[in-house]
Design a protein that fits this description.
Blueprint (H helix, E strand, L loop, with lengths): L3 H4 L3 E5 L8 H11 L5 E5 L10 E3 L10 E4 L3 H13 L4 E4 L9 H16 L3 E3 L5 E3 L4 E3 L7 E10 L2 H12 L5 E6 L8 H10 L8 E6 L5 H13 L3 E6 L13 H5 L2 H12 L2 E2 L3 H11 L9 E5 L2 H12 L10 H9 L11 E2 L6 H13 L5 E5 L9 H13 L3 E5 L7 H8 L9 H12 L16 H10 L3 E2 L2 H10 L8 E3 L2 H7 L7 E6 L10 E5 L2 H11 L7 E6 L4 E9 L5 E7 L3 H4 L3 E5 L4 H9 L4 H5 L9 H17 L3 E11 L4 E3 L2 E5 L2
Parallel strand pairs: 1-2, 1-4, 2-3, 4-5, 5-6, 9-10, 9-11, 11-12, 12-13, 14-15, 14-16, 16-17
Antiparallel strand pairs: 7-8, 7-10, 18-28, 19-22, 20-21, 20-22, 23-24, 23-26, 24-25, 26-27, 26-28
Amino acid sequence: MINKALISPKSIAVIGASSQSSKPGGKVLINLIKGGFTGKVYGVNPNPLNIDGVEHISHIDKLPQVDLAILAIPANYCLEVITKLLEKNTKAFIVYSSGFGEAGEEGKILEKKIVDLVTKYNACLVGPNCIGVMNENYKGVFTTPIPSYNSQGCELISSSGATAVFIMEAALSTGLSFSNVYSIGNASQISAEDILEYMDLHFNENSPKVKLLYLESINNPVKLMKHATSLIRKGCKIAAIKSGYSAEGGRAASSHTGALATSDVVIRALFNKAGIIYCSGRDELISVACVLQSKEVHGKRIAIITHAGGSAVMLTDALCSRGMEVPFINEKKSKELLSKLNPGSSVANPIDFLATGTAEQLGLIIDFCESLEEIDAIIVVFGSPGLFNVKDVYQVLNNKMQHCKKTIFPVLPSLINAKNEIKGFLTNGHVNFSDELVLGRALPHVYNCPKPTFGMTHLMDMETATIRGIINQASNGYLSAEQCRELLLASGINMVQEYNCDSIESLTSILPNIKFPVVMKVMGPIHKTEVNGVTLNINTTEILICEFDRMMKIEGAVGVIIQPMIEGIELYCGAAKQGNFGHLILAGLGGIFVEVLHDISYGIAPLNTSETLKMIRSLKGYKIIEGYRNGNGVNEEFYADAIMRIASLVNIAPEIAELDINPFKANMEQIVAVDARIRIEK
């Protein structure tokens, strides 16, 4: 849908133009003219405009054909105006106006009529309820600031116009630069996914590499993942905020999986699969973007250079707690360097060359770190107490950042004492992290972001015909215990042997087959432990009969399940359908701990082996799975295989709304599903 008329129009008409810069229709004219638009600009308003560079048009009927129309008029006039402009062969529209889908049902109807009409004429529409578009060719927004165009600056896509402004305001103070900015508002026709698709299809070696997203909705997750993955594999980096999530919906969920599969978890899983860096707010997005616009870091070993010991300690803590390393520098290697620094300096890493340190000494330290094989990147923290000018220090830093092979990150915190010096430093094309902890959080966030796995999934071999037969015959709601068993066995998942009893006669009939010890579980109640519906290590017939009598008196009980006791660690795996996002797969320690500890990893189905192993190894309880302090662990390949089979099962049977295996019993020899609940929704 995005076309040439939107990207590089030769003529632009502002409908609702104004001579007042305080109005959207006036401010956009100023931005278009001052922004250097070289084409024809028309301002449509019954009243005279008298703005240099703008041709006044008193009525829409008198307007010649234009490529792009920007509408700054009330919503109820938009349909008529757009109809007339489409008949004049206008091919692109930016609608600032609010009062559409965000305002209620009447607005939704009007918005749909406009979208249907624009689409019919093979034109494109940005908005409504947006601030517009900025690129190399024109500044079609009614807001400020207007960043200077940088062909390698960040591309920004934002659902919210105000948020786009806030991001740019804060970002520019860090030295961050921008190329193209898209405010999509209601995204009635052109969505964030469409813009990513356009960026992907038109990507070349000169395209901007850093993409920033603020999203309030994701209508086509597969399309988002596809084009984000493609761009990242072409060398781009993408960071995103997704707002509008809540865990409240989990309150009504009947299974462990339903309670754990919050919207935020789904978004994180989607971003992980696409290789998108998840950011929780504007500050984090901006700091991550600053890292992305620096040279790429190819290792996690960091040297910290500073004249402020406290900053070094806090930065070291922030980095190391997030998986980075600040390696000790051997005294033999640093002896010569130490001799060139002021007495009291420390070079063990962090390297502290004191408040009396000079620009020349900073250069020597950076050269030293550049020569060390055990260092992958350098962070320089240097402010000013206001006693002397630090311009020469920042000049050395600028020179080293331009010529060193290793990435150097500047932390220049003296925003008042060294205000002018920092400003001069930023004019060289650098960014600045004014707070060491901001960088200490952002750098690991970027470095640890997983590579995209979308399109690299693996479907397990299963009895597809059997699975589809069970699903086709099933009604909406929970499958019976026997149906669950058949479905999982057809998926290649080992199930524990079990007996179902609903009367003393049925219990008596299976007694010859019972090998103690066994476990008994009530059937009927959803959360068995909450009603005291699980008894372990039953080792006599007398206790077995006694527990049967007790459990059958539990409210809602329809029978019991008897299973052999299996030694091993309890694990969990679940799947929850998340609308057009597909199925979220969750894994972790099982039993009651799945809800108590919330130690859960997740991914979007289907999964491949590397994704699944990362899920397992990211668990806080992974040491238990490995085997802690000579304890018996779990064969994680068996666990990974089971998780991948669940991910493949929901691909074959998308009617599965919730699947909950809790627990698996696992050891080094086997993994066996002990209890399962599966809900169907057709």
